[in-house]
Write a structure and sequence with these properties.
Blueprint (H helix, E strand, L loop, with lengths): L1 H16 L6 H9 L4 H9 L9 H9 L4 H11 L8 E5 L5 E3 L3 E2 L2 E4 L1 H6 L6 E8 L6 E2 L6 E4 L6 H6 L12 H4 L6 E5 L1 E3 L4 E9 L4 E3 L9 E7 L2 E6 L5 E7 L11 E7 L1
C-alpha cells in the first residue's frame, strides 16, 4: 500500500513539473517525492531550467541532501538558463519565434556514370535532395535574423537519449553536440522544378581523390552575436529570393547520421 501511495505521489509530481521551468526548488521537491538521482538528472536534461548557482543557494541544496553529481549539473546548467528549447528559430510574421524543424534528405544522386565514360576526367558530384521546391518556413525579408540555442553541457550518452520537447520522434542532438553556429554552414539550394525537389552538393569524387561535406565556395557568409552563453543571433549577408538551409558540419555521435538540414525560403 505504501509503495502504491509513493508511486501515485511520483506521478502527480511529474505532472506538476512537466509544464514548468525546473528550478532549485523543483529539485528539492523531486527529492522529497522520492525521485532518485537518475530521474532528477534526466528531468533536468530534458527540461527548460532556471537555476541559482550562488554559493548560498548551493549550500541550501547541499543541506537538503542534493548529491554532488546533481549540484555539478546545476552549476553547468546555470550558465545556460533559458526558457526556450534548443534549435534554430526565425521571427515569424506574427512576431513570434518559430522553430525550424529538421528536414530529412529524401535521397542522393551522383553523376558517377558520366565520370566513368570519360575515364575519370571529371568529378562525380554527390547531391543530397529534399522533396518539394519550397520550404515550409517562409521568410519575407532579404535580411533575416535567426536565433540558435544550444545545450552542449550534456554528455554523448544524453545526446543519444534525450529528445526535443514532447515529440519523442525528434532527437535534437545537433544542438547538444555543437556549441555555436560556426559548426553549421549556410548554403543556397538548387531548385529542380521538373523533379519537384531541391538539392545541394555534399561531396565530390574523382579517380584521384574524394571529398565529403559542403565545399567552402558554396558556403554563404553570416555574422553571429552571442546573446547568452548558449544563445546566439545569426545574421546572414543579404539573401536573394530562393531556397536555403543550414547544415551541421561538426562531429556526429555514434549511432547517428547527418541526413537532415534546417531549410527555409526567402521571398
Amino acid at each position: 500500500m505504501k509503495k502504491l501511495f509513493l508511486l501515485l505521489l511520483i506521478m502527480i509530481g511529474f505532472q506538476g513539473l512537466s509544464q514548468e521551468t525546473i528550478t532549485n526548488e523543483s529539485v528539492v521537491q523531486m527529492m522529497e517525492l522520492g525521485f532518485d538521482d537518475y530521474m532528477i538528472i534526466d528531468k533536468i536534461n530534458t527540461s527548460d531550467v532556471k537555476f541559482d548557482a550562488s554559493i548560498s543557494a548551493l549550500g541550501t541544496l547541499k543541506k537538503a541532501g542534493v548529491s554532488s553529481e546533481i549540484l555539478s549539473l546545476i552549476m553547468a546548467k546555470s550558465k545556460q538558463n533559458t526558457k526556450s528549447k534548443t534549435g534554430i528559430y526565425y521571427l515569424a510574421e506574427n512576431g513570434e519565434d518559430k522553430l525550424i524543424q529538421p528536414s530529412v534528405f529524401s535521397g542522393t544522386n551522383s553523376n558517377a556514370a558520366a565520370q566513368r565514360l570519360v575515364s575519370g576526367l571529371i568529378n562525380s558530384k554527390k547531391k543530397a535532395q529534399l522533396p518539394g521546391i519550397h520550404s515550409n518556413n517562409v521568410l519575407k525579408t532579404r535580411a533575416p535574423e535567426f536565433t540558435f540555442i544550444f545545450d552542449p553541457s550534456v554528455t554523448e550518452v544524453d545526446n543519444m537519449q534525450n529528445n526535443q520537447g514532447g515529440d519523442t520522434g525528434i532527437f535534437n542532438w545537433w544542438f547538444r553536440m555543437a556549441s555555436n553556429p560556426n559548426e553549421f554552414v549556410l548554403v543556397k539550394l538548387t531548385v529542380k522544378e521538373k523533379k519537384n525537389l531541391r538539392e545541394v552538393i555534399t561531396g565530390k569524387k574523382s579517380w584521384i581523390a574524394s571529398s565529403s561535406g559542403i565545399d567552402p565556395k558554396y558556403a554563404l557568409n553570416f555574422s553571429m552575436e552571442e546573446i547568452e552563453g548558449n544563445k546566439f543571433k545569426v545574421t546572414p549577408d543579404a539573401l536573394e529570393p530562393g531556397e536555403y538551409c543550414f547544415i551541421y558540419q561538426g562531429a556526429v555521435p555514434q549511432g547517428r547520421d547527418n541526413q537532415s538540414v534546417f531549410d527555409f525560403s526567402i521571398q
